[in-house]
Amino acid sequence: MKAAITDLRANAEDHYIQRETEVRLKDAISHLPMAYRNVIEIRQQSEGSIKEVAAQVGITVAATKSRLMRATKALRNSLSEQEFRSSGAGRLPKEIY
């Protein structure tokens, strides 16, 4: 009986693409205005609700939603430009928060 041979190249490629996407996303987040960067980073780190993020930042829920929406739009634009320039090593996740 022959043992199955796993093709590790596919896993390595997926890992590289995932890592490249993460690096691009972190870079794009670092270039956001501080107000947008704060809500995105808190949302990612705590995985809390929008209400919890609003309480941590000290703004209203409506302002938090607005900042998250604007930050997401800015990130999509930034990453789309990067992807266009570099021929696309990865794709922007549909939901980053």
Report the top-level CATH class of one domain: Mainly Alpha
Secondary-structure content class:
mainly alpha
How much strand content do the residues show? under 5%
Instruction: Please tell me the CATH architecture of one domain by its name.
Output: Orthogonal Bundle
Number of strands: 0
Q: Going by CATH, what is the homologous superfamily of one domain? A: Winged helix-like DNA-binding domain superfamily/Winged helix DNA-binding domain
What about the largest sheet?
none
Number of helices: 4
- The helix-strand sequence is HHHH
Q: Any idea what the shape is? A: elongated
* Terminus-to-terminus distance: 47 Å
Describe, in plain words, how this protein is organized in 3D.
With 97 residues, the protein is mainly α. The protein is 72% helix and 0% strand. It has helices at 8-30, 34-46, 50-57, 61-86. It is elongated and about 50 Å long. The mean pLDDT is 82.
